Structures are given as C-alpha cells and as structure tokens.
C-alpha cells in the first residue's frame, strides 16, 4: 500500500509554486515548508533585501525571489514572464500579500458613541481603500496573471494533483468582532468570496481554488501581540499562537495528493478561536 505512505501522500516533490508576500511571516513559512519537501518556490515581494534573506533560508537552494509589486499589473506580468522562462509552468499560486489597514488600536474599551464615531471618522479613506487594493484586488489579479502557467502545469503532468490557487485570507474574515479593523476583516472576507467564485468558474479549466484562513501566527502584522507564550483558553482554546509546523501541515495537505480532492473550500487554522467568538464560519 505504497500509495498510503505519508511520504507519498503528502509529497510536493517537483511542485512549482509561486508565493506572494513570501519574504516574511506566513508567506515565508509556506515557502520554507514547500521547499524543504522538494518543491521549487518563487517568492514575490517589494523589499529585495527581505526576499534575499528569505531565499537564503532554503534547505535545498530552491527558493528564488522576484522583486514585485503585486498591485501593479506590469510587475505581475514581468513575474509571469520570468517564471515562464525559467520553469515553463507552475502548479500552485499562493496569494498571500496583505496589510492590516486602519485599526481600532487606541480606542478604549467602553468608549462613548461619540468617541467610537470619531475614531472611525478620523481614518483616511485612502488607507481604507488601499487595504482592499492589496488584500482583495491584488490577490485576484495575481491569480488571473498566472492562469495560463497553471494550465501549463496541468499539461506538464509533473504532479498528480491538478493546479491550484490558494488565497491566504484570515480567521478575521469570519470574526464579527473586527479586532484588526473593518477594512482588514472586510477585505479578507471579500477575498474568500472571490476565491469561492473562482472555484466555480475555473472548473472547465481544471484549476482548483481554495482558501487558508489563519488565526494568530507570527508575522509583521502580529508582532505587537506575540509577547506571551501562553494564551488564556477563552481567547485561543489551544492556548498558543500557531507556528511553522501548524502552517506546514495545513499547506502540505492542501498542496499534495492528500488534498487533491479539495476545491472551493476554506481551511481555518486558528487553534479553535472562531469556536468561541461570534463568527460567520
């Protein structure tokens, strides 16, 4: 029963993957997990020094970086052309780039309605819109940019599972308490719906679309929160933040033969946090 061996079932050997925002945080965890298990990984991001440092962590020297602004169509097209010239196809695209946007930080608990209104009114509309531009719009156009290379990945037949796009959304997309702010929660929720719609519309092209929704994981966004090792059970039932092993397990499942039957789904990895919050999931 070699097909049931975990090394075969969860293998990503030879998989060609593209990860936006792959230089830090969750994107880097994903890149390291895939590359350590035999995948060829391209990471995209704006900061070259961060990308270079990330690429140097590769276990097999198979993390390659491209300085790319994913809110720019010309940058995305250039990335597609470069990867096409190097690998010829891709099997996986992970749209991970994101920002927090305006937050509720500084608003005291029990604030009056006037204080609440003023805090929200003082947000810059352009900052609110920019959050959607990166978390939602750029994620969509990242997927669109790579569709033809994903199709070529299916035709290459280098892995058994069909080509796939995965959007890194957030447990915050389902949390009715907008801890990271309304723009962040709304943009991540919008991305979830778009990916579900793509799962339907990409069926004729044999390209799958799924969503991974992390809870509290180490990243530049959560740096100010991760000051403690253990969390109360009524905040996170698992009483800890997620780590690279949690992220690797989720991604290796979704991207290997083990997850080949998954399409149009949302996988939440949050230590049970949505179970104790008013949530829509």
UniProtKB/TrEMBL annotation:
Going by the UniProt record, its keywords in alphabetical order are: NADP, Oxidoreductase
Q: Which domain of life is it from?
A: Eukaryota
The species this protein was found in: Alternaria burnsii
Give the protein name, as stated in the record: Short chain dehydrogenase reductase
Which InterPro entries does UniProt cross-reference here? NAD(P)-bd_dom_sf (IPR036291), Sc_DH/Rdtase_CS (IPR020904), SDR_fam (IPR002347), Sec_Metab_Biosynth_SDR (IPR052178)
* One Pfam match: adh_short_C2
Protein family according to the UniProt entry: Belongs to the short-chain dehydrogenases/reductases (SDR) family.
Q: Which GO terms describe its molecular function?
A: oxidoreductase activity
